[in-house]
């Protein structure tokens, strides 16, 4: 499903229990760090940071890939360049995630179609932090 209606976003937020943040950064000025910090403080989600180039952020382990996570994340929140989205989608499908969330500024309609065809809910060009705050 590629619908981004308020009802779809609310359903995803309500049903999500775990979130993998792909493209996590140790830099507090980066959006991925800000979103992680907010979600850690404001939600009960189990959060996983994913980035093959770092091993921890503020004492929290960072995993090199979605496949390395200790559980299947419900939602994969993506902070990567557009050209990397097909690979992130393939990884999300391979691990069995339910939702692919492309952060604000990220949109790829082919990735959205392919994700929906594989059974994922795909949300594009929205900020997880903003949407959670909006509906919480």
Automatic annotation (TrEMBL):
Domain of life: Bacteria
Residue span(s) of domain CoA-binding: 12-106
InterPro entries: CoA-bd, NAD(P)-bd_dom_sf
TM region positions: none
Protein name (Swiss-Prot/TrEMBL): CoA-binding protein
